[in-house]
UniProtKB/TrEMBL annotation:
GO terms for biological process: exocytosis; regulation of calcium ion-dependent exocytosis; spontaneous neurotransmitter secretion. SMART domains: C2. Residues 53-175, 197-330 form the C2 domain. The keyword Calcium applies. The gene is DOC2B. GO terms for cellular component: membrane; presynapse. This is Double C2 domain beta. GO terms for molecular function: metal ion binding. Gene3D superfamilies: C2 domain. It comes from the Eukaryota. PROSITE patterns: C2 (PS50004). Keywords: Calcium, Metal-binding, Repeat. Pfam families: C2 (PF00168).
C-alpha cells in the first residue's frame, strides 16, 4: 500500500503504517559448502537478542577420520562485549568436549590484549577422537576475558554437536555467541558421574602365528589428566593379561617426564595360544610417577570379550585377524570394574 502524500490534518494513518518499524537484526550464519552442485551457501544459525549481543565467532572444524583427530581452527571474533574498564577485553577461546568433566580435554588459544575484534587464526587439535565420539560428543566453544588480578570472565559460548560434521570435510561456522548454558544442554547426554574421562590412549594388538603369542603396543597417550601441581604428569603405562594366577603378566613402559601427551612406542609380548585369548582380558592403566610417595592412578581401560563398544571390537578384530596389527584409540576412565588400582 503506498501513500504518495502525507495524510491531511486529522486523518488517521492505516494500521499497517502505524506499527513501529524495527531495524533488521543480522542473522548469525553457518556456512554450508557441502551442497552438491551449488555454490557455498549460508544457513541461519541463530538470531541474537539485540539488547544482549555478545559478539560473533568465526571458526572451522575438521574431523580427520584416518588419524582420529578433530582440528578446531579459531579464526576471529567480532563485536565482543566489553569486559574491562577501558571498554575493551583481553579475549581467548576455550574448547571443551562434552560429556567429560576432566580438565584433560580442555584446550585454549592464546590471549589477545585490548580488543573486541580479535584475530587468532589458531588451530587446536583433539587426538584420539573416535567415530563413537563423533556421534555422542558435543564441542563447547567459550570466549572468555583474561583478568590478571581476578577470575577470568565468561563472555559467550556456542555448542556444536559433532554429529553435524562429515568425516574429512571442513565445516565453517560464523555464529552468534550465547549466554552460558547448563552443561546438560547443547546435545550432550548426562554423564555417568562415577566415570570421569582422564585422557586417551593408542594401543596396538597383533596375534603372531609365528611366535604363538599376543603383541601389545603402547603407542601414545593424549590429553591426560594433570596430577601434579605444575599442571602436568609424569606418566607411564602398566599392562596385565588377566586372569593372571602367577602374576607374571605385568609389564611397564618407561616414565615420560612432565607431559600430558606422552609418546611411548613400546611393545610387549605374551606367549599364549590363540584359542586361550578369548578367555583373557587386557587391563591397561596409566599412572603418574611420584618420587617418595605412592604413584597416582590417572586412568585405565580394559579390552576383552566382556568389554563393550570399541574395547570389545578391538579385541574381537585382533582375534579374527591373525598377524595383522590393529591400532585403536581408547578413552581412559577413572574407574575400572573389578580392577585393583594400586601400583
Amino acid at each position: 500500500m503506498m501513500f504518495p502524500h502525507p495524510p491531511a490534518q486529522g486523518q488517521t494513518l492505516p494500521l499497517e503504517l502505524r506499527l513501529p518499524i524495527h531495524k533488521k537484526t543480522p542473522l548469525c550464519l553457518e556456512e554450508n559448502p557441502s551442497r552438491t552442485g551449488a555454490k557455498p551457501g549460508l544457513d541461519p544459525w541463530c538470531l541474537p537478542n539485540p539488547g544482549t549481543a555478545l559478539g560473533t565467532l568465526d571458526f572451522s572444524l575438521l574431523y580427520d577420520q584416518e588419524n582420529n583427530a578433530l582440528h578446531c581452527t579459531i579464526n576471529k571474533a567480532k563485536g565482543l562485549k566489553p569486559m574491562d574498564h577501558n571498554g575493551l577485553a583481553d579475549p581467548y577461546v576455550k574448547l571443551h568436549l562434552l560429556p567429560g568433566a576432566s580438565k584433560a580435554n580442555k584446550l585454549r588459544t592464546k590471549t589477545l590484549r585490548n580488543t573486541l575484534n580479535p584475530t587468532w587464526n589458531e588451530t587446536l587439535t583433539y587426538y584420539g577422537i573416535t567415530d563413537e565420539d563423533m556421534i555422542r560428543k558435543t564441542l563447547r566453544i567459550s570466549v572468555c576475558d583474561e583478568d590478571k588480578f581476578r577470575h577470568n570472565e565468561f563472555i559467550g559460548e556456542t555448542r556444536i554437536p559433532l554429529k553435524k560434521l562429515k568425516p574429512n570435510q571442513t565445516k565453517n561456522f560464523n555464529i552468534c555467541l550465547e549466554k552460558q548454558l547448563p552443561v546438560s544442554e547443547g546435545g550432550s547426554e548426562p554423564q555417568d558421574k562415577s566415570l570421569e574421562e582422564r585422557g586417551r590412549i593408542l594401543i596396538s594388538l597383533k596375534y603372531s602365528s609365528q611366535k604363538q603369542g599376543l603383541q601389545v603396543g603402547i603407542m601414545r597417550c593424549a590429553h591426560l589428566a594433570a596430577m601434579d601441581a605444575n599442571g602436568y604428569s609424569d606418566p607411564y603405562v602398566k599392562i596385565y593379561l588377566k586372569p593372571d594366577e602367577d602374576k607374571k603378566s605385568k609389564h611397564k613402559t618407561a616414565v615420560k617426564k612432565k607431559t600430558l601427551n606422552p609418546e611411548f612406542n613400546e611393545e610387549f609380548f605374551y606367549e599364549i595360544k590363540h584359542g586361550d585369548l578369548a578367555k583373557k582380558t587386557l587391563e591397561v592403566t596409566v599412572w603418574d610417577y611420584d618420587i617418595g610417595k605412592s604413584n597416582d592412578f590417572i586412568g585405565g581401560v580394559v579390552l576383552g570379550i566382556n568389554a563393550k563398544g570399541e574395547r570389545l571390537k578391538h579385541w574381537f578384530d585382533c582375534l579374527k585377524n591373525k598377524d595383522k596389527k590393529i591400532e585403536r584409540w581408547h578413552t581412559l576412565t577413572n574407574e575400572l570394574p573389578g580392577a585393583v588400582l594400586s601400583d
